[in-house]
Amino acid sequence: MNLPREIHSFLRIFLVFVFLLVPSVFVLAEGVSPHHGGQLVLATTSDPKSFNAITAKETSTTLVTSYMFEGLTRVNGVTMQVEPHLAESWEVSEDGLTWTFHLRDDVQWFDGQPLTADDVVFTFQDLIFNDQIPNSARDIFTIDGKIFNVGKVDDHTVKFILPFKFAPFLWGMTQEILPRHVLKAAVEKGEFNFTWGIDTPPGKIIGTGPYRLVRYNPGERLVFERNPHYWKKSSEGDQLPYIEKIVYLIIQNVDVGLLKFLDGEVDSVSLRGIDYPLVKPREQEGNFTIYETGPDFGTNFITFNQNSGKNPKTEESFVSPYKLAWFTNVHFRQAVAYAIDKKKIIEIVMNGLGTPQSSSMSPSSGFFYNPDVHDYEYDLDKAREILKREGFVDHNQDGILEDLEGHPLEFNLYTNSGATDRVQMAGIIRHDLQAIGMKVNFLPIEFNNLVKKLTADFDWDAIIIGLTGGVEPHFGKNVWSSDGGLHMWFPNQAAPATEWEKRIDEIFSQGVQELDPVRRKGLYDEFQVIVSEQLPVIYTVLGNTVYAVRNKFGNLHPTSYGGIFHNLEEIYIKENYK
């Protein structure tokens, strides 16, 4: 796919000759810098599912919304510390329950309307805490059924009154703020859940972020242009962001993305281990740099459908009763865990650039990471022994085990087709599961269809997928809480289905209210141990984060947490590349 020719920057530098008693000099127009202009071209393997930042549950959507919407705070990609953003300052009461935020008075929405306290109150009270609007943020901001009270003090002051202590509160204020004046009517009509779908004209999507979506061609590309009225300025007083245009090519898979990078069509690519020996020798002649930043935060795991519910339309069970009996049996899941050859996955899929994962947090998470969890060393004999003990026997000698009722141990395994590393991983796992007597039908499908199965249809047996991860455990509450919308093996439970899920609910309720770091760590250490023993998700390996980036960018500061472009608005394209 050929890219359109690079457009000239819409910002022009006006040169003014000053004829005084001193030699003539050049003067830049206010707010304009030689750094302004140019474009950044990236690639993604999936079309967005929507443009709605509140209802988003998948990275294909948040990739788009992250450019257009912002929170009261942000997390520095280098220091991992919370910094002011849409709020320029705040105060907290001595008891830690009342937080007062002072909004910047120079922030405009894309349509020119000012950001006010009404937008913040609307985002929390009318969207996040609205039971009719499905969203992951409500899981995070709700403890024991209690929510925040959010009120307007004046146009630029907002007060949060908490019913409980909330240790990661400032981290939570990275939550995107949406415009009341644009979306209020949709909420009142009960139409918000269908607002800002992918059929929405880009100009109708109103945010405050550094970039605004101007074009979306399904299956082809997304185009963002610089917000000319963005509030942020550099330390030198330059109007940010610097880069004029961002283009995302929508491609079939990551292999195509790599080829486009090597052909010069894409400016940066995340490298898998298998890519490294191909790309590294070309680093100098290709005029790009490879950055290695440490273990990834993102996980890869296999999970089994334990949903005991029924489809309300058909009254049929989401999972066949006999399969549900397998998947809810922790010993079955342990057998699968022993059959995953993590060393082979690292060697073959990641070319040695990976780390075996047993804990539900990455080693890069730092303080809250617990390395002392239950580990499952690759052992097919142990896996076979467990299955035999649970009554799985190959009675007809066809190589496939049967359960006590005679059902063959057969299930479908899905992953997203665009992620070739997961496809390869699935092939290795499938091979070993078949070696212990399981018949695995591997079915790679498009990412958004996979997410639909996982979060809406609940029509699946097993899935290999991942989560983005982070450094704050509580922000995984929508996954680990039994009533969470991303509690993927059995979401939205009315009451915990098991005692261990009940205990995890308690841990997350207590952990978020515990202000002592040592006691808080103890709780989340216990959570990680429970997950490693009960295996609702069976972890595989963490890849090392490795990026290849063209040498056209200035002010890059790559990190494992922030990635390459975490400070995108401050990054510029060097003069000789424009």
Brief rundown of the structure:
The chain is of the alpha+beta class. The protein has helices at residues 59-68, 117-128, 136-141, 169-172, 180-188, 254-262, 276-279, 321-327, 330-338, 342-348, 380-389, 420-435, 447-457, 477-480, 499-513, 517-534, and strands spanning 39-44, 73-75, 82-84, 87-92, 98-103, 149-154, 157-161, 211-217, 221-226, 245-250, 268-270, 288-295, 301-304, 354-356, 410-416, 439-445, 462-465, 537-539, 541-550, 553-554, 572-573.
Protein architecture, described:
By secondary structure, the chain is α+β, with helices and mostly antiparallel strands. The chain folds into 2 domains: 39-226, Dipeptide-binding Protein, domain 1 (Alpha-Beta Complex); 301-542, Roll (Dipeptide-binding Protein, domain 3). 26% of the residues lie in helices and 19% in strands. The strands form 6 sheets. The chain has a 5-stranded mixed sheet, sandwiched between helices. Helix 2 (117-128) packs parallel to helix 5 (180-188), helix 9 runs antiparallel to helix 11 and helix 15 (499-513) runs antiparallel to helix 16 (517-534). The longest helix has 18 residues, at 517-534. The radius of gyration is 25 Å and the shape is globular.
